[in-house]
Amino acid sequence: MVGLIFVCSMATEATSQVRRVVIYDDAATELRTPSPFTHSKDLWVTLAELTRATGFVVKPQGVCRNELCFPLPKQRKADFLGQRGKVTWFNLSEFARLVKQPVAHEEKLATWCFGPRPERQNSYLATLEAPNFTLPDSGGKLHSLSNFRGKKVLLITWASW
Amino acid sequence: MPGWQTFYRELKDKNFEIVSVAQDTGGAKDASPWIEKANPEYTVLIDEQHLITKLYSMVNVPTAVWISEQGKIVRPNEVAFVDDRFKSYTHMDSGPYLDGIRDWVAKGERSSFVLGEEELRKRLTPVSPDRLMADAEFSLAEYLYHAGHGSEAIPHFKQAQRLAPDNWNYKRQAWLLSDADRDYGTNFTKEVQKLHGKPYYPPRQMPEPANKPN
After folding, report:
1. What domain range is A118 assigned to?
2. So what's the pLDDT on residue B209?
3. What ipTM does the predicted assembly reach?
4. How many domains does chain A have?
5. Which residues are bridge partners to A58 per DSSP?
6. Going by C-beta distance under 8 Å and a sequence separation of 6 or more, which residues neighbour residue B34?
7. Which of A64, A108, B92, B154 has the fewest C-beta atoms lying within 10 Å of its C-beta?
């Protein structure tokens, strides 16, 4: 119990110092470990935070998620990885530059938004398959385009504005 | 929306579905009144993050994509009105478009409205780095808006609009979320006037139906 209270108060202290938000694949994740790279404009995250926010894992062969792996340039490892005490940090901004991923940044609110890599956005052009999506109806029930396979679909967008 | 409901009734027993997606940062709060009023039988979804705008490179509403039984795009997005309420503004008849859909539903890939691969590849092109950055800026702005930082969102909405100048969805949505004249120095009416008679909607490139489907 004592331990639990201790952990909670630590977390509160950390978030009051710096509360950073990463938006990746349209989902926002709050990071609680204050970055020691205070002079860098780049977003450095711990390896645990990297996985929590993006699903990517640093492996010997590169930065990987499922079957996808991006090798890090050997001579530039230090641009991507930094050791501070026992913690290994990862430069997510540098990784975005490597994979040509767009990043929008709100400095004052320490918020970063990572868009899709170009080849991901454009992947449907090879197959001409309609990009799949999953969205809620007004009752909150989720529907995927792929559920309509076998029928002709007229996909219409509209807006209240 | 009531117009689409009538149209859906006509075709729903022919292996045809309408999936209608609201591009609204305000989500169900903004979109629901419209849905409740029309009470459609087809699927209506809420897209708070403008995911469909991004995925399908849409620039205005109402816009529609035709998708085959195999999940392939057979006509990429183009303006899709179900009636002529806005004809003075669009200079387009809805009738030929709806007849085109009827033709497709009746004939499938033999329909002259279904585009061949070569034509599809001409119309569907890779997005530019600027467009991708515009999407990221817009997503950031929406997040900030929802997190209660409306004024911090504005520079990012503006950046998205600057990087994707043809995207009316990015303009109109952002303007709606604040006082457009005060925060953006413009509004929808003023921007439409700036077109000087150029069409707001890109004209559709559709063949005339050779013979009406029965």
Report:
1. 20-131
2. 53
3. 0.93
4. 1
5. A63
6. A158, A160, B1, B22
7. A108
Subunit contact A114:B22, Cβ cutoff 8 A: no
- B 181-210 residues with CB < 8 A to A: none
Residues of B in contact with A161 (CB under 8 A): 24, 30, 172-173, 175-176
From the list A113, A137, A153, the residue facing B45 with the nearest CB is A137
Let me know if residue B90 belongs to a domain. yes
Nearest CA in chain B to A141: B45
pTM value is: 0.90
Domain extent, residue B98, equals: 2-123
Cα–Cα distance between B214 and B212 in angstroms, integer?
A: 6
Q: What is the pLDDT of residues A95-138, one digit of tens each?
A: 999 999 999 999 999 999 999 999 999 999 999 999 999 999 99
Dihedral sign of CA atoms B110, B90, B30, B159 in order: positive
Please name the residue of chain A whose CA is at the shortest distance from the CA of residue B43.
A137
- Rounded to the nearest 10 degrees, the angle between the axes of helix B129-146 and helix B168-176 is 20
In a domain, A142, yes or no: no
**In one letter, which amino acid is A150?**
G
Closest-CA residue of B relative to A143 is B45
**H, E, C per residue of chain A:** CHHHHHHHHHHHHHHHHCCEEEEECCEEEEECCCCCCCCCCCCEEEHHHHHHHHCCEEECCEEEECCEEECCCHHHHHHHEEEECCEEEEEHHHHHHHCCCCEEEECCCCEEEECCCHHHHCCHHHHCECCCCEEECCCCCEEEHHHHCCCEEEEEEECCC
Is the Cβ–Cβ distance between B27 and B119 less than 8 Å?
no
Does residue B137 lie in a domain region? yes
Confidence band for A17, pLDDT divided at 50, 70 and 90: low
Place of tokens 């694949």: A25
| pLDDT 10s digits, B126-183 | 999 999 999 999 999 999 999 999 999 999 999 999 999 999 999 999 999 999 999 9
Tokens of A48: 């645990």
Q: How many Å apart are CA B78 and CA A154, to the nearest integer?
A: 11
Judge whether B115 lies within some domain: yes
Are B105 and B171 contained in the same domain? Answer: no
